[in-house]
Amino acid sequence: MLATLRQAARASAHLALAAVVAFLSYIFITVLLITAVCVVAVIGIWMLPETVLIIRRIAGAKRTLTARWTGRPIPEAYRPVKGPLPDRIKIAVRDPGTGKDLLWLVAQYAYGWMTLLMIPLWPVGLVVDGVWCGVLRQRAVVLPLITKLADLEAGWSATLLRPSPEALLQARVEELTTTRADAVAAHGAELRRIERDLHDGAQARLVALSMRIGLAQRAYEADPERARKLLDDALGQAEEALAELRHVVRGIHPPILTDRGLVGAVRALAGSSGLTVEVRADGLDEAVRPPAAVEAAAYFVVAEALTNVAKHSGADQAEVALTRTRRGLRVEVRDAGKGGADDHAGSGLTGMRRRVAALDGTIAVASPVGGPTVVTAELPCVW
Asked: Disulfide check for 129: which of 56, 140, 190, 256 has CB 3.0–4.6 Å away?
C-alpha cells in the first residue's frame, strides 16, 4: 500500500504540473487570437515569429515534463528563427515544427482537462484501497488509476510533441552542412600547417643542403679538407631534413598506425607520454581493424587527450579504452586530475571535435571541477 501511495503521489505531481501547462495553454488562446488579428491586419505581422517562439518554449517545457515522467527524452527539431523580419516570418511559417506544435496545442485543449480526474480518484482511492488492501490484503485498484492516467497523458504528449520525419531530416541536413563546413575548415587548416612545416622546415634544410653540396663541389679540387668538412655538414643537414619530413608525415598519417595498428600505436603513444597509462582494447586486434580514417581520428583523439592530461590536469595517471561497438569505435580517455576542461581555453578540445565531426562522429567531455575528466568519442564505421 505504501508503494502504491508513493507512486500515486509521484503521478499526481506530474499531473499537477501538466495541469499548469494546460492552464497556460488555455490562457495563450488570447495571444493566438491577438496575433491572428494583427497578422490579418498586416500592421502586427512582426508578432508572428515572436508568438512561434513562445509556443516553442511552452512545448519545450512540456517535452521536459513528459521526458521526466517517461524516462525517454523527446528531441527538438526547430530551425532557428533569426535574421531580418521577412526571413524570420518565412522560417516561422515554413518550419515543420511550427505545425507540429500547433497540433499539440490544439490537442492540449482537448485532453488537458484530463489531469483533473486525479482529484476525485484520491478520496475514493484512499477509502476503497484502504479497506481493500488494509483489511482484505488485496492489490490496490483505484490509486493505480492515477498512475495510468499520468501514463496516458504523457503518452499522448510524447506522440504529439515528437518531431516529424521532415523536421528530423531538415535538422540532419543542417547538422551535416555544419559538419561539412567544419571539415572543410579543418582540412584547410591542416593543409596550411603541412605547407608551413614543409616551407619552414624541410624545404629550408634542403636549400641549405644544396648550397653546402655546391660549395663542397667547388672546393673539392682546391681544398679537399674544406670540401670534406662541407660534405659532413651536408650529411647532418640531410638527416635533419629527413627528420623534418618524418615529422610532417606523422602529422598526416602516423606510420605506426600502418605498422602496428590502432592498439599498438596507442600503446606506443601511452609509453612515450610521460604518464602511467593503462590501455584496454575490447574487440580489437590485428585481424579486426577499423578503416584508416577512423584509426587516424581515434589516434589523434588519444594523443590530444593525453597531451591535455599531461599539461593541464595535474594527474600522473590516465586510462584509455578502445571498444568495438556494433556501429563503430568508442574511444574513452579518463584521468583523475583537477577537471574543469574548457573548449575555449586552448586545450585542443575544439580540434578534437572537428576531427571527429568530419567522420560524422560525436565527442563528449565530462570534466567537473575537481575531476575526473572523461573524454568519450564515438566514431561510426562498418566492420
From this structure: 140
Side chain identity at 41, as an amino acid letter? A
**Residue corresponding to grid cell 480518484:** 121
| Three-state SS at 78 | coil
Q: Once rounded to an integer, what is the mean pLDDT over residues 371-380? A: 90
Does pLDDT of 126 surpass 90? no
Q: Which three cell numbers stand for residue 195?
A: 605547407
> Which amino acid is it at 132?
W
What pLDDT is attached to residue 184? 64
Quick check: bond before 372 cis, omega within 30? yes
Establish how many alpha carbons lie within 13 A of residue 41's alpha carbon, considering only the half-sphere containing its beta carbon.
9
Count the residues in the chain: 383
pTM of the predicted protein model: 0.55
**Do the Cβ atoms of 197 and 244 come closer than 8 Å?**
yes
Q: SS3 for 361?
A: coil
CB of 70 closer than 8 Å to CB of 140: no
Which residues fall within 8 angstroms of residue 15, CB to CB, at 6 or more apart?
115, 118, 146, 149, 150, 153
Comparing 222 with 60, the larger pLDDT belongs to 60
Question: What pLDDT sits at residue 333?
Answer: 93
DSSP tally for the chain: helices H, then strands E: 12, 5
CB 80 within 8 A of CB 97: no
Contact (CB, 8 A) for 285 and 263: yes
